Amino acid sequence: MLAFYALVFTLAWGPWGLALITASPGAFPGAGANSAADVGPFTYVTMLLGPPSIALAAILVIALAFGKVGLRDLRSRLFRWRVGVRWYAVALLTAPLLMTAILGALSLTSKAFVPGIITAEDKASLLVAGLVAGLVAGLFEEVGWTGFATHELSKRHGLLATGLLVGLPWSVLHLPLYLGNASGAVPQALSLPVSLFSVLLPYRVLMVWVYGHTHSVLLAMLMHLPLSASAFLTVSPAMEGVPDLIFSLVLGATLWVVVAAVTAADRRKLSRGEYTPATSLTHVVST
After folding, report:
1. Confidence band of 63 (pLDDT split at 50, 70, 90)
2. Residue 25: phi, psi to the nearest 5?
3. pTM of the predicted protein model
4. What is the largest CA-CA distance in the chain?
5. Buried-exposed string 103-125: b where 16+ CB fall within 10 A, e elsewhere
6. What does the pLDDT look like over 65-103, one tens digit per residue?
7. Which residue stretches of 28-122 are H helix?
8. Is the dihedral of CA 139, 29, 173, 266 positive or negative?
9. How far apart are CA 150 and CA 58, in angstroms?
10. ∠ at Cα 274 (271, 277), nearest 5°?
11. Whose CA is closest to 30, among 168, 145, 137?
12. Which of 127, 149, 101, 131 is nearest to 250 (CA)?
């Protein structure tokens, strides 16, 4: 696992660091872009180079550790799509519904919380850029984070431990992107920890929970997509600074409540013996 994390940071931080160095202020998604053009083509391309390196790291480690058997197993989980409609709904709708509801409620107190896609000058290009970024991040990153890291760690650890062991490095990996978003309106000693950990950590725990029920890397990809796309679509220029901090804290707290609810529900079902072998979470929720 340490070899995988070392490869991920080495390979991914290269292009993301280059994007940070060369980007102009406000050029990162989530920094209040009015259109895709504000991000800049070079910054956008270098950002998109990071996710494939995570997939490459996972494939290399699996090939070296497990050989062809491990690669075949990964392939089978990549294309596992018969998992039930409810799990597709959880994967695709959790982030958009929670974000929309929270922004809608907060917008009653300030127009700063009106989603960026509504106030953007070029809605079409921003939507396309967000969807492309979400697809690239979801398709490639989850080969590593779910296809390898979650799959292996959940064999030895419970739901929360696995979520944290995968979520912490996943969060820290985004440090160059959040440094590029820093506006100076909030001290970085406060804004960076909130940006890195308040939302990504509980969301990763939920992704581990969904994977424990489905063993589908494909579903993890679909769950990652709306979270990444939201960086382009939800944040507006007016939301920089304190409003963004408030939104992240409220969304993070809501996600932790959801994590607590689904974990408690799983424990009750497990205690009543309601899991079948195909969906057993004994190794996931045990502590």
Report:
1. very high
2. -55, 135
3. 0.87
4. 56
5. beebeeeeebbbbbbeebeeeeb
6. 999 999 999 999 999 999 999 999 999 999 999 999 999
7. 41-48, 50-78, 85-107, 116-119
8. negative
9. 11
10. 110
11. 137
12. 101
Cβ atoms of 150 and 266 within 8 Å: the answer is: no
Q: Which residue in 227, 198, 199, 224 sits closest to 211, CA to CA?
A: 224
Contacts of 83 by beta carbon, 8 Å cutoff, 6+ apart = 213, 214, 216, 219
Q: Give the structural domain span for 133.
A: 2-285
Instruction: Please state, in angstroms and as integers, the Cα–Cα distance from residue 96 to each residue in 140, 256, 283, following that order.
Output: 21, 16, 29
**Cβ-count burial of 61 within 10 angstroms (0-12 exposed, 13-18 middle, 19+ buried)?**
buried
Q: What are phi and psi of 140, to 5 degrees?
A: -90, -45
* CA distance linking residue 38 with residue 96, whole number of Å: 23
177, 144 in Cβ contact below 8 A?
no
The distance from CA 67 to its chain's CA centroid, rounded to whole angstroms, is: 28
Residue 116: per-residue pLDDT: 82
What is the number of domains present in the chain? 1
85: which 2 tokens? 């409609």
For 12, 66, 129, 137, 170, the CA distances from 60, given in Å and listed in that order, are 15, 10, 29, 19, 18
Task: Kindly write down the DSSP assignment for every residue of 3-43, as one continuous string.
Answer: HHHHHHHHHHHHHHHHHHHHPPTT-STTS--SSGGGT-HHH
pLDDT 10s digits, 235-279: 777 788 888 899 999 999 999 999 999 999 888 877 766 554 344
Q: Token match 């917008």: residue? A: 107
* Region of 241 on the Ramachandran plot (φ > 0 left; ψ -120 to 50 alpha; else beta): left
At 144 the pLDDT is 97
In whole angstroms, give the CA distance from residue 84 to residue 79.
14
Q: Residue for token digits 């259109």?
A: 35
